[in-house]
Amino acid sequence: MTDYTPKPEHKFTFGLWTVGNIGRDPFGSEVRPAKTPVELVRLLAEVGAWGVNFHDNDLVPIDATPAERDRIVKDFKAALAETGLVVPMATTNLFFDPAFKDGAFTANDPKVRAYALQKTMNAIDLGAELGARIYVFWGGREGTETDASKDPMESIKRSREAMNFLCEYVLDKKYDMKFALEAKPNEPRGDIYNSTTGHMLAFIETLDHPDMVGVNPEVAHEHMAGLNFVHGVAQALDAGKLFHIDLNDQAFGRYDQDFRFGAVNLKSAFFLVKLLEDNGYDSSRHFDAHAYRTEDYEGVKDFARGCMRTYLILKEKTAQWNADKEIQALVAEINADDGSMSKYFGKYSAQKASALRTQTFDRLALGARGLGYERLDQLTVDLLLGVR
Prior knowledge:
46% of the residues lie in helices and 9% in strands. The strands form two sheets. An eight-stranded parallel sheet has the order 8-6-4-3-2-1-10-9. A two-stranded antiparallel ribbon has the order 5-7. The longest helix is centred in the last third of the chain and has 27 residues, at 297-323. It has 388 residues and is α/β, with parallel strands linked by helices.
């Protein structure tokens, strides 16, 4: 059996808000005592994580004085040095404080929009100070419950103006940092702008510095909308925009559950890991998930270890799938190509189009051919269940 011990080259990360989640939900109070950022760094080091990520207020309370801020950051840096953990990503909390109840960059109140920019600049400075090279934006309140409240065209313009402003800020400060936009369809707002990865990819192309901005897709957010997460990630990879990724799990159509990676949709998780590994994804593998509310902090450690272990098992299964002679023979048969049609593909030309128009096809034979997908899927299931 393979050693499933996480190593630095796996680039596994967790947020302070993930292992630090105290189990509070809309129907029940906390079940775990809060831990300090330093304690959480040590917990992550104990379970074998490579890095730790944070929102600005996960680390520094929103009402901290400058002196308190400096002390907290000093202690956090010392914990990083002590454990060897790194900070690959940072982000801003623009959704929790009541000031952002109508959104941050899309709020109707211009003072709120200005405060959101100020808060984000300060948080970018903090992220840069701690070494973050990816900065994530999740617009958790950027939406509506009633479309009477906001003009969606104006909201798009406000979002674009904010991203352009902050890109220029990073360039002006000469930070080695890129942005990753995180989509979510709903919760906590009724409807959130740029609700899927596809929306985000289209929005990025309208920015002044699209090269600086990519996406941070999350399993649970796409599954909430009933979408195929693997397909969305493939689109981001194809566009060269997969700057970061949030790994967790989620039952389709439910509220944002943030389960341990692979806890619900194991086959989907396998094809996601296969996509990432086959295509050489080399950024953080970030677990944006929470332990069950039933757990104490030993259970939180079990949760964190489980996320990483499942990924590594599925990475091993990917190698097995790619090397399995029967599976690969079937894949080759399914994708058989005698080269006779290659003259019609690729870049368009009038000659190519003319020749294709005269080509004769046996439509009935094309429709009659069985493709073997049932067998291929069952071979995959057999492999995942450990009987191959």
